[in-house]
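Here is the promised in-class demo. Please do not try to memorize the tokens; focus on the logic of going from shape to residues.
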């Protein structure tokens, strides 16, 4: 194929041609990709969508999540608004009681209905409310103190400089002073309505900073500056309006208080730094960032200081009002105790009948001794504290699930108006009737009611209208809260500039502290390309980090070995789905300019272990094995199933490599999929070494070898992720996106895993389905919540590149096992060891329950046992390693605490003593059901276990597994007896017995847990299988695993492989030696039958082969054998000469006819050479081969006739160096192997002895205690039986109580397992809530508040559904698009022949998603596009959306042309760095372009022919030859 891929300004996106052939080798017509379809061969096989595994329909789940998102909008809106209003109202209620000698009208219902009363608050009453004010201020500050202390002690917190601490100290002191002035002096002198209004005038300093820090390059800068100045002026009016109107001296504290309060929010209104920012602005912004990074260190000191300072202001207020400041402490006992108050009778006189003003005078009469509700202040303070905290967590939740505009900003903006209106309503009721809230609010307490009776007078004469101006100015100052750009699940530190909230001004605090999200980088493809084409030498090394460096890069790293075709199909379909998703995101950004926060770049790699075998042609050559051929044959079928149309991808490009070879496919979405074929004779095989291989390739060669600055590499490494997969995994793209969300949320996250679902059929698969469910529901969720996940499974895990590159991780992972313990810990459970290394370096490992992946599980009993034989010892070894190094790990890792280590110790103790516990359970069950004595039950269980241990220590694995299978079946029957025994025990002892409670709690927790995972509730059906196999899995399996500790083979997916001549010769020698040894030790040797076939006799006779008699024996001369050998050698030489001369066999009479390669391949297996070529055959010419140029496997026709290419010199040298350093195949040193074998046996013996002794002692102690439970027991206080008897002779009633007995060890069991169950169940609930939040954050609802201001409905629809529209436009299945919106036709009306004839005329589908997208985008009026449901609900909406698509595309193209013109004028180099042009010998020899350095394509747009300068495709330089068989 030859296609020109040059950039041009006139046609920057039209370079993909639909008529470009997939393959242009016209020399061999029989190998063309597309052939003319004959009439007799028009019948089609169309791929059908299969709903299995990850593709099972989840419509009901998606609908449920959308409904929950809608409910979340409403509920969180009400929660934020309601709790903020309650918090503000209760605060004003408290401040209303702080005025000295306050008079309040009193209800007369309980006194005298015909009289009016008032009461005056005394000092005790005022002190109780001062304590309430101090409590509502101190509780959030104390919470901030506790959080800061926790982070400083258990995590890492930076220490500020003296100047930074001084600035923070001054600012916090000023804000506390302002709050104290407002609460203690100003608000008590104002009515509550004015107080609520004044709280919207505390934004003066942020308004001023907006004026100073506004971006002057913004196109609307002048209009925004005018609004900023108006906002400052509006806020400043609060300084003078009410001080001048009321004339009270204390109100002149308002300007001081509002300025000091607003000063505390300065951090959020400094920045961002722009290109034209002044040096002072840059310095202030850097200082602000430094303060934020050290927030927790200063908070633990300043929080206590603020509490003390507020207390000092309280005492100062008492002093200024003429009271003793120390009375705040000395009279606290009297204030919060039973006391009384007095009411005075008054006579009311009207002052003005029109205005409603009135006066009153004392009559001198009063009623003393009315009791006080002294706890009222505490209850109000409690309500305020709870409401403020609930508002904070609800507001934070709204931001985390991306409903900020409606449920956060809009709700908090309504707090002021709603509060004012509610207060006016309440005060109006109280003014009209002093008994309006009788028995709801104490009669002597209420808000400070406005003195004006009519609302028009209040608005006019009292200047209340000015509040509207304050409210609008506050909304403008906080306009950034309407434009959120934070990522999903953002942490509190990213959402808010301060760690917690201010309890007194919760709504203003949340709005002012909500960060502006200015640090989020918009990444667009065209900008990224322009930035990356600048020479690195022309940039400032200190600030050369580019937007493209923040792009998420995912390297799929799949390890394969001996997967079946069905397993490969599931894996490949997952890759094609991911490719389709990435392509849609790329074209949406490229052609429409959509800013996609979930955009990622993709590259898929498969590492195939043991990919080569001995060639059928010659023992000296290698060919790919049947698994590689299966992979190649399966790719087109997998692509067809995903895209629902028949697809033929371009044949893979083949590369010879130092480790074997690699095949490269270009997927429909223009992403690469590369299969690395590993030759175990050249590089180490097994999964761990494949992981070392791709870690060093991607993170070492592809990243560290780049000629970039360290800062850029740091950012790239942080955003580079390795997706570790198994070759049978099945997942959706959204599963990867959810893991990426976790990575973006926490930069300290080193690895993340999803929910693994086992796939299979049969009892073993059913057992694993429930086991995996319980393990993820409880165990992994608990580890995630209270510490870190200990194992991120290698079948589906995401690793951060930067974490793997850290010290003692990637390098230590390359250690070669040279001790027995290493074989168990390093090679048997490589994924768990890698996670252990990450944890010991301080990284966190998390689990996402919403990220689902499906993997095939063992379906046979022996396969399952062999798999767990690897897992169990490696799990125990790694946990022991972590526990042994726990002290250092706790100090290094902020997420692992002492309590978490204790929890893991408890689980490890339960694992070790689990077999003994199950053994005792079986004894008890047999004793309870069959009635046999405990001693008899002990021996009945001891015999099979002892036999099994002996067999495991002495016999082969097959025998062990056979016996384990038999014992498992027997114990399954016994477990059915246990169920009956439990039911009988509950019936006898009652529901309150210890065993009954524990049983109910255990099974109840399972059912509740399953109910909280509704999509997986079917796993409960397999609870019975799990239950009856408990003895096998928790007792026999542990025994089998430990007794086979010395067996370090893989155990699963092992198949017979073709052997080389050398291996066959070695096996033959070994068999001969074994045969001789057997003959020497045989029974017939005693009868003289020790002769071998090497002797013959001059006289021989035998009887039916029973015995043989030879006389005059002498050694054989082998003349006949040598003669036959010479004949065979001569025949072989003749055949080779004929082959070299091009002769064909007689059976090939028709040369043009295609040869059946399957028959040839099948017949060739029986034609392996049994003898080496003799010296006489050396004159036969043999093609010279170089493994890096023309290896034999490249000519294999089963790999398809794709192009052959070669690695760059730099990459070749890298692989050679890597193999020499870490991946050289381990030499088979017999002495070393014998040493390791001996060490493994010794380790096995030691572990088995320790394990057996611990469990034996445990069983012995518990069994003896059980025998003597009559003497050693506790009385269980519940469920006792009462027997009442009447003795008629003595006329007495005898009452006997029979208590249930709980032996000491039983109580220990209940406490131990009960604690574990409570911890796991509680952690599971919290984890489920976190998962729900994660799911809600990924769902978008198309309604008003999700549309940005100033955006049309069509553009809003496009921005919301851009990815789905792009997927529809790039879809390869044309038939599906043609029939969109139409149902399936009945069989009788189906036009079968018409469809077949139409298929004859239809061109071969283009397998380029990008080309399909552009073709359909260029003809938007076609009938296909009009029927796309994603464009809108009706025809008019679809047409409008099409017009919006065209407009958006044209604007993006115009911007791109302008950007390219500017780049052409400004840039000094076309490439990121100029590749050297020096030619090398290898380059000249292979005919390829030689470069002295590797030009890395991993960090450029993924194979977009419109935007990349790639070399022209050329014809193959290696010709395919017919293999000689």
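The designed amino acids, position by position:
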């Amino acid at each position: 194929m030859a296609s020109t891929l040059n950039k041009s300004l006139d046609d920057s996106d039209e370079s993909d041609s639909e008529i470009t052939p997939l393959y242009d080798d016209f020399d061999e017509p029989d190998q063309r990709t597309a052939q003319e379809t004959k009439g007799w061969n028009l019948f089609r096989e169309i791929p059908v969508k299969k709903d299995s595994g990850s593709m099972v329909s989840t419509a009901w789940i998606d609908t449920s999540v959308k409904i929950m998102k809608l409910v979340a909008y409403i509920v969180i809106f009400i929660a934020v608004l309601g709790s903020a209003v309650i918090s503000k109202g209760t605060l004003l209620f408290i401040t209303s009681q702080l005025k000295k000698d306050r008079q309040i009208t009193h209800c007369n219902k309980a006194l005298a209905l015909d009289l009016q009363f008032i009461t005056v608050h005394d000092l005790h009453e005022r002190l109780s409310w001062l304590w309430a004010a101090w409590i509502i201020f101190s509780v959030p500050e104390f919470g901030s103190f506790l959080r800061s202390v926790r982070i400083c002690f258990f995590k890492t917190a930076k220490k500020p400089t003296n100047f930074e601490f001084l600035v923070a100290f001054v600012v916090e002191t000023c804000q506390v002073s302002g709050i104290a002035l407002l609460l203690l002096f100003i608000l008590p002198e104002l009515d509550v309505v004015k107080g609520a209004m004044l709280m919207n005038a505390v934004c003066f300093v942020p308004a001023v900073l907006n004026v100073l820090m506004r971006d002057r390059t913004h196109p609307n800068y002048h209009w925004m500056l005018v609004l900023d100045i108006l906002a400052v002026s509006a806020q400043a009016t609060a300084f003078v309006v009410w001080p001048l109107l009321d004339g009270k001296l204390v109100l002149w504290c308002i300007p001081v208080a509002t300025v000091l309060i607003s000063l505390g929010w300065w951090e959020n209104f400094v920045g961002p730094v722009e290109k034209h920012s002044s040096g002072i602005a840059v310095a202030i912004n850097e200082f602000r960032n430094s303060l934020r990074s050290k927030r927790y260190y200063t908070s633990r000191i300043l929080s206590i200081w603020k509490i003390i300072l507020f207390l000092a202001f309280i005492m100062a207020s008492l002093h200024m009002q003429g009271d003793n400041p120390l009375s705040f402490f000395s009279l606290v006992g009297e204030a919060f105790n039973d006391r009384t108050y007095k009411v005075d009778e008054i006579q009311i006189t009207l002052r003005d009948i029109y205005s409603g003003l009135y006066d009153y005078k004392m009559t001198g009469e009063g009623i003393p001794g009315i009791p006080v509700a002294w706890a009222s202040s505490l209850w109000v303070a409690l309500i305020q504290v709870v409401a403020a905290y609930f508002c904070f967590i609800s507001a934070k939740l709204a931001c985390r699930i991306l409903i900020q505009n409606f449920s956060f900003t809009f709700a908090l903006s309504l707090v002021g108006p709603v509060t004012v209106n509610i207060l006016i309503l309440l005060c109006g009721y109280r003014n009209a009737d002093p008994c309006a809230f009788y028995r709801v609010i104490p009669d002597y307490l209420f808000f400070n009611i406005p003195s004006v009776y009519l609302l028009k007078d209040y608005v006019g004469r009292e200047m209340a209208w000015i509040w509207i101006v304050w409210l609008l100015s506050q909304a403008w100052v906080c306009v950034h809260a309407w434009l959120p750009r934070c990522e999903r699940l953002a942490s509190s530190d990213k959402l808010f500039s301060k760690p917690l909230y201010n309890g007194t001004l919760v709504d203003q605090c949340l709005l002012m502290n909500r960060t502006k999200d200015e640090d989020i980088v918009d990444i667009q493809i065209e900008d990224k390309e322009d930035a990356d084409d600048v020479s690195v030498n022309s940039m400032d090394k200190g600030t050369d980090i580019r937007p493209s460096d923040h792009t998420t890069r995912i390297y799929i790293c799949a390890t394969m070995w001996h997967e079946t075709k069905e397993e490969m199909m599931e894996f490949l379909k997952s890759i094609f789905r991911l490719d389709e998703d990435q392509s849609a995101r790329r074209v949406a950004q490229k052609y429409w300019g959509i800013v996609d926060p979930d955009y990622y770049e993709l590259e898929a790699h498969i590492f195939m272990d043991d990919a080569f075998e001995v060639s059928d042609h010659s023992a000296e050559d290698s060919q790919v094995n049947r698994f590689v051929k299966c992979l190649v044959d399966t790719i087109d079928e997998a692509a067809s199933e995903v895209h629902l149309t028949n697809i033929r991808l371009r044949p893979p490009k083949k590369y010879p490599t130092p480790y074997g070879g690699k095949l490269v496919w270009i997927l429909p979405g223009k992403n690469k999929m590369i299969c690395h074929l590993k030759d175990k004779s050249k590089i180490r095989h097994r999964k761990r070494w494949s992981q070392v291989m791709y870690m060093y390739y991607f993170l070492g060669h592809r990243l560290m070898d780049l000629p970039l600055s360290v800062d850029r590499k740091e950012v790239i490494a942080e955003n580079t992720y390795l997706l570790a997969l198994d070759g049978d995994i099945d997942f959706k793209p959204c599963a990867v996106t959810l893991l990426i969300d976790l990575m973006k949320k926490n930069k300290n996250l080193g690895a993340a895993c999803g929910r693994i679902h086992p796939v299979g059929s049969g009892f073993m698969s059913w057992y694993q389905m429930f086991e995996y469910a319980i393990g993820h529901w409880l165990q992994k969720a608990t580890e995630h919540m209270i510490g870190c996940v200990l194992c991120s499974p290698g079948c589906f895990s995401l690793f951060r590149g930067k974490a793997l590159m850290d010290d003692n991780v990637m390098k230590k992972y390359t250690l070669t096992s040279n001790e027995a313990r290493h074989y168990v810990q390093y090679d048997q459970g490589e994924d768990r060891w890698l996670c252990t290394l990450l944890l010991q370096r301080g990284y966190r490992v998390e689990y996402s329950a919403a990220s689902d992946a499906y993997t095939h599980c063992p379906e046979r009993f022996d396969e399952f046992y062999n798999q767990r034989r690897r897992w169990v010892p490696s799990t125990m070894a790694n946990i022991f390693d972590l526990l042994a190094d726990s002290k250092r790990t706790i100090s290094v890792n902020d997420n692992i605490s002492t309590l978490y280590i204790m929890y893991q110790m408890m689980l490890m103790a339960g694992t070790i003593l689990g077999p003994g516990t199950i053994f005792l359970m079986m004894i008890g069950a047999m004793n309870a059901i069959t009635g046999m004595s405990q001693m008899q039950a002990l021996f009945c269980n001891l015999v099979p276990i002892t036999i099994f241990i002996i067999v495991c220590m002495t016999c082969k694995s097959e025998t062990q597994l056979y016996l384990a299978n038999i014992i498992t079946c027997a114990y399954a029957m016994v477990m059915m007896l246990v169920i009956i025994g439990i039911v009988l025990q509950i019936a006898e002892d009652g529901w309150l017995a210890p065993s009954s409670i524990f049983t109910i709690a255990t099974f109840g927790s399972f059912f509740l847990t399953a109910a909280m995972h509704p999509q997986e509730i079917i796993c409960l059906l397999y609870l019975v299988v799990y239950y009856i196999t408990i003895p096998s899995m928790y007792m026999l399996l542990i025994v089998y695993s430990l007794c086979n500790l010395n067996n370090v083979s893989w155990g699963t997916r092992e198949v017979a492989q073709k052997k080389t001549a050398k291996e066959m010769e070695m096996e033959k020698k070994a068999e001969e030696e074994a045969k001789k040894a057997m003959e020497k030790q045989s029974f017939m040797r005693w009868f003289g039958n020790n002769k071998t076939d090497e002797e013959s006799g001059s006289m021989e006779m035998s009887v039916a082969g029973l015995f043989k008699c030879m006389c005059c024996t002498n050694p054989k001369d082998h003349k006949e054998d040598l003669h036959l050998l010479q004949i065979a050698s001569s025949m072989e030489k003749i055949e080779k000469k004929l082959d070299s001369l091009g002769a064909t066999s007689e059976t090939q009479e028709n040369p043009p006819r295609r040869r059946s390669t399957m028959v040839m391949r099948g017949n060739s297996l029986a034609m392996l050479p049994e003898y080496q070529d003799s010296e006489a055959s050396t004159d036969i010419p043999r093609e010279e081969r170089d493994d890096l140029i023309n290896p034999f496997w490249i000519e294999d026709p089963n790999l398809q006739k794709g192009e052959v290419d070669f690695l760059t010199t730099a990459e070749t040298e890298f692989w050679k160096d890597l193999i020499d350093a870490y991946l050289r195949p381990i030499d088979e040193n017999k002495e070393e192997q014998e040493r390791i074998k001996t060490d493994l046996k010794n380790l096995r013996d030691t572990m088995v002895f320790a394990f057996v002794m611990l469990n034996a002692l445990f069983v012995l102690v518990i069994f003896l205690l059980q025998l003597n439970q009559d003497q050693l027991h506790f009385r269980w206080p519940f469920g006792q039986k009462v027997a009442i008897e009447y003795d008629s002779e003595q006329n007495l009633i005898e009452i006997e109580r029979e208590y249930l007995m709980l032996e000491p060890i039983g109580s220990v069991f209940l406490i131990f397992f009960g604690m574990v169950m409570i911890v796991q169940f509680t952690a599971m609930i919290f984890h489920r809530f976190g998962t729900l939040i994660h799911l809600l954050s990924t769902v978008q609802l198309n309604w008003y508040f999700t549309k940005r201001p100033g955006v049309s409905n069509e553009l809003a629809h496009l921005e919301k559904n851009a990815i789905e529209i792009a997927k529809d436009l790039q879809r390869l299945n044309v038939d599906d698009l043609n029939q969109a919106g139409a149902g399936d036709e009945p069989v009788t009306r189906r036009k079968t022949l018409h469809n077949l004839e139409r298929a004859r005329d239809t061109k071969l589908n283009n397998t380029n998603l990008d080309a399909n997208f552009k073709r359909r985008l260029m003809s938007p009026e076609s009938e296909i596009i009009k029927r796309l449901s994603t464009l809108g609900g009706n025809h008019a909406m679809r047409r409008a959306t099409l017009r919006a698509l065209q407009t958006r595309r044209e604007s993006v193209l115009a911007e791109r042309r302008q950007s390219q013109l500017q780049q052409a004028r400004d840039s000094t180099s076309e490439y990121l760095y100029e590749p050297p042009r020096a030619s090398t010998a290898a380059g000249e020899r292979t005919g390829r372009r030689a470069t002295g350095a590797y030009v890395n394509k991993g960090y450029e747009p993924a194979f977009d022919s419109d935007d990349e300068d790639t070399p022209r495709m050329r014809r193959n330089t290696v010709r395919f030859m017919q293999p000689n068989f």
